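REQUEST ID: PR-0412
SUBMITTED BY: lab tech R.K.
PRIORITY: routine
TASK: structure prediction, single protein chain
INPUT:
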Amino acid sequence: MIVFPNAKINIGLNIVERRPDGYHNIETVFYPIPLCDALEIVPAHDGDATLTCYGNAVDCPVEKNLVMKAYRLMQRQFQLPPVNIFLYKHIPDGAGLGGGSSDAAFTLTTLNTMFRLNLTNEQLAQMAITIGADCPFFIYNTPMIATGIGDVLSPIDVDIKRFTLLLIKPDVSVPTKAAYAHVTPHPALVPIPAILEQEPQLWRDTLVNDFETSVFAQYPELASIKQSLYDAGAIYASMSGSGSSIFGLFPASTSTEQLKQMSLLNHYPTHFILPLNH
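STATUS: complete
OUTPUT:
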């Protein structure tokens, strides 16, 4: 069975408070985007389960890969037989796009279908949170306002389908733990859902990603990319998650060819032009 785990962007990200357990409560919108890995799971005829990765390098032992963690979780609970898993990585790592979490969530949903476990999305989400904070979002894979550590999800009506997304991943990786270490939590002045009731043209000065202050101070190149997207005509631009990818929303009337001609893209070969109206 073949599926295509997709990435997400964060539309706004408020870091509200530090929790007693060391994690942080946040407020953000997770929004799925059509940038995908490829995941194939087939029954194994003998031996133990295997995971074979292709595409972008995956720098971790097989058993620590979130895909294998997802399989082992379901194997323990439901006595699943061994499978062979093939993962083609296309979503950049260390980019705030949730690629690993998406791969894990899609592993859970695919195994649920393959072995007819009949688990509900709510049950799958409860399993997914034990793998990673943003894994449950990919079970539902529809725009969600996320609170708590990113695991408390509610559907939200935000539509950016009339825009084209230009996503740039510079040769910089921002470790999530380090990003959180340098932020100062504070309650949001205006809740994100209230801001999103406005037209995207008004988001620029009110819809923030709290990670940007400290991350941009450490990596000024990222701030420069964001400004370049605005200079090129973006309606809204932001870093996704804790970085390091930067995205801009451009009017759908901006053609792919126009975006490809941006001199900025010559400096950043890892970029994606993604129409959102599909």
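NOTES: The radius of gyration is 19 Å.
REVIEWED BY: pending
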